Amino acid sequence: MPGTRIGYARVSTTDQDLTVQLAALKAAGCGVIRSEKMSGSTVAGRDELRTVLAFIGEGDTLVVTRIDRLARSLGDLQDIVRELKTKGAGLMATEQPINTSTAAGKAFLDMLGVFAEFETNLRRERQMEGIAKAKAAGVYKGGKTRIAADEVRRLAGEGVGPSAIARQLGIGRASVYRLLGSIKASAPSIEA
């Protein structure tokens, strides 16, 4: 009995659109499609991907449009492929000749993973060079504050846990812990 094709679509930011990916996955015969708007630089915080990986089983195939929708680093990609393999599931991309059930598909997957990681590293280097140049010219003021520290403080004061705060504000748990740690560090100490 052939397994199920499970689609996974991802965009990095909330202002990007998933429509094209969803249509391609549906056309590829995916009976189930999960999607999310999260950065692909790590698998942390990507709940829909974790759900797919938790429930995919023997003979099933995880289908993506391109591997950069699945992972941006070779390490993460290899971890995902290893997890799929241990469950007896495969990986396929609709826009790339990737199918882990063939030797050529596996080789192509590895090559694309290397190039995806290389591209991410180049982009990061160019960004850092641009920031350094802007700082030297005196025009760089730093990025906008993306996390409302007051809101984190308020929610923590109401007894809301770090994971719930992160979910509610759409930020990473590490950011919540960092903010809560800096709040505690800056609080005056009271000695008995």
TrEMBL record:
Belongs to the site-specific recombinase resolvase family. It comes from Methylobacterium nonmethylotrophicum. The lineage of its organism: Bacteria, Pseudomonadati, Pseudomonadota, Alphaproteobacteria, Hyphomicrobiales. Keywords: DNA integration, DNA invertase, DNA recombination, DNA-binding. SMART domains: Resolvase. Residues 4-138 form the Resolvase/invertase-type recombinase catalytic domain. The active site is at S12 (o-(5'-phospho-dna)-serine intermediate). Gene3D superfamilies: Homeodomain-like (1.10.10.60), Resolvase, N-terminal catalytic domain (3.40.50.1390). PROSITE patterns: RECOMBINASES_1 (PS00397), RECOMBINASES_2 (PS00398), RECOMBINASES_3 (PS51736). It comes from the Bacteria. GO terms for biological process: DNA integration. This is Recombinase family protein. One of its GO terms (molecular function) is DNA strand exchange activity. InterPro entries: Homeodomain-like_sf, Recombinase_CS, Resolv_N, Resolvase-like_N_sf, Resolvase_HTH_dom, SSR_resolvase.
